[in-house]
Amino acid sequence: MIGRLLRFVLWSTTAVAAAAFLALAAHALSEPVTHDPLEATILERATRVAEDRPLFTDAGAEPATALMPGLPLVVSVFVRLFDARLWEPRLVSLLSIAAAALLVAIVVTIETKSATLGAAGATVLLMGQGLIAGAPAVARPESLAFLLALLGLCTIRYAPGIWGALLATFPVTAACFTHPHALWFAAAGLVHLAVHDRRRFFAHALGLVALLGGTHVLLWLTVGPWYNYEAWDVFLQALHFAPVPLLTYVGTQLLGPLGVFTLATVLAFTLPVRPWRGAVGLWTWLGFAALGAGIAATQSGAEMEDALRPAAFALALLGPISIQRVTQHLSAWPGSSRMAGQRVMLTALVLQFLTLFASAASLRLGNG
Predict the structure, then answer these.
(1) Residue 3 located in a structural domain
(2) How many other CB atoms sit within 10 Å of the CB of residue 8?
(3) CA 160, 164, 166, 172: dihedral to nearest 10 degrees?
(4) pTM, two decimal places
């Protein structure tokens, strides 16, 4: 009875979160003005591409913005078709978040054999990217980068053999030229293959080096002489050691709205089977990558919401898997039962949703 009630609460929460995400997204898509300078920059650079002008201009002509070419190139397709409109970059970001949530649901369901956990992971991603880390349809390059990186990691996980490792290099490379955070996820795939499958590692590493290097040279030759500066140097020059944002990130972000999934992931390291081992260990390396990306964001002067994005993306997938691992291990102890373990797992998910809704409500009240 308790288990059924908890499942009902979880699925109802999933429906409410999805509806809230869609409602906020629809409102943001129809907003005629932008309050985020990055949106204007994305649309302006997409317009340059659509008009066959250089993507990057003289760094002294205007304030430099750390923006990789991936998202403007995608948005330029819409600009060619419909002229320059704010809804175009917002739509790309929104569809990226929705597609990533669907992919998370599929992956978690495959790994855990539980549709409830899959739905929970997708809900956490929607709330983490849309309801906690800013308006859901505000154009952000991270959304597209996360989707591409996840596609690459899924290819590593589920496409067998050397051809699968080579195929994964294409979406991973595209992600790296969409946002620098994706470099952490590219490293996660490499480390996983180095630990799990050396033969596929060499194929993936060689393919990735060739594609990254070739794409870098191609962009340097085609999109303008200031590509290196505005795509890479501006981001790297912003890095500096800042202990207070780092502590805030760990104490109020990872252990705040994402606290339940964070603690479940930490507890998974105490299990006899190390979570980074085996094929499913890829998702643990994804968690390490998200931690590195979030820390890097805190050291570059970014807003705390920007640091939260990679963590919400990775924990949406890794958190449900870790919760199932921990509860299955506990339910195997003498005196425990499988049903008791499932109830604990469902309760943990409900608590995670509770913290997310509380954080979302606090954010909306603070902005209002």
Answers:
(1) no
(2) 10
(3) -120
(4) 0.89
**In Å, how far are 39, 43, 303 from 91, measured between CA atoms?**
12, 12, 22
Residue 187 neighbours by CB under 8 Å, 6+ apart: 289
CA dist., res. 70 & res. 26, Å (int): 24
Domain that holds residue 291: 24-227+238-367
The count of other CB atoms within 10 Å of the CB of residue 246 is 15
Distances (CA, A) of 231 to 65, 150, 219, 301: 8, 22, 10, 17
Average pLDDT estimate for 249-261: 78
Number of domains, the chain: 1
Q: Half-sphere exposure (CA, 13 Å, Cβ side) for 113?
A: 3
pLDDT in tens, 65-118: 678 888 999 999 999 888 888 888 988 988 999 899 999 999 999 999 988 889
Q: In whole angstroms, what is the distance from residue 49 CA to residue 219 CA?
A: 13
Residues 347/260, Cβ–Cβ less than 8 Å: no
In a domain, 329, yes or no: yes
Helices (H), 113-179: 115-126, 141-158, 161-176
Does the residue 232 lie in any domain? no
How far apart (Å, rounded) are the C-alpha atoms in residues 298 and 250?
Answer: 10
Q: Which residues contact residue 7 at a Cβ distance below 8 angstroms, ignoring those fewer than 6 apart?
A: 116, 346
Question: Residue 2 domain-assigned?
Answer: no
